[in-house]
Amino acid sequence: MNNEGIESGKERMAEDALARYLGIELRELKPGYARATMEIRPEHLNGVGLTHGGAIFSLADLVFAAASNSHGNVALGLNVNINYLKATKLGETLSAEAKEVHLTAKTGVYRMEVKDSKSEKVAVAEGLVYRKSL
């Protein structure tokens, strides 16, 4: 685990066009860990005025990608399972963390939590990546 992996991970996340469009900001990146935030804007809302599940998923997916790519290998998502726990609305700022649970030469498992500004859980997710060889 070295700074090369962190720097390449930051560069990859900076190139993530969807994250930029959604206003997701990567706040912290360490080997096997990432934290990001997203303020809920009108374009993040669903038809009933609540935060769209796809916006929440995208925030969780960004920290998943950042954490899993933090070792320098290209890591590609194989599966993500998400559970939505609480609705949020316009103006809320969500934060997400991804933590590495298990790492091998070829795979990695990560747990993601999305929380609101009161630190209440909005969603929890788990993801599996395939790690390409360096």
Instruction: Write down the overall mean pLDDT.
Output: 93
CATH class, anyone? Alpha Beta
**Radius of gyration over all CA atoms, rounded:** 14 Å
Widest sheet: strand ordering:
1-2-4-5-6-3
Shape: globular
Number of helices: 3
Structural class per helix/strand content?
Answer: alpha+beta
- The counted number of beta strands is 6
CATH topology: Thiol Ester Dehydrase, Chain A
Helices and strands, in order, run as: HHEEHEEEE
CATH superfamily: Hotdog Thioesterase
Name the poorly predicted regions: none
Give an overview of the whole structure.
- This protein has about 130 residues and is α+β, with helices and mostly antiparallel strands.
- It has one domain: Hotdog Thioesterase (Thiol Ester Dehydrase, Chain A, Roll), CATH 3.10.129.10.
- The protein contains 3 helices and 6 strands, in the order H-H-E-E-H-E-E-E-E.
- It has helices spanning about 5-15, 15-20, 55-70, and strands spanning about 25-30, 35-40, 75-85, 95-105, 105-115, 120-130.
- Strands 1-2-4-5-6-3 form a 6-stranded antiparallel sheet.
- Strand 5 (about 105-115) and strand 6 (about 120-130) form a beta hairpin.
- Helix 1 runs antiparallel to helix 3.
- The radius of gyration is 14 Å and the shape is globular.
- The mean pLDDT is about 95.
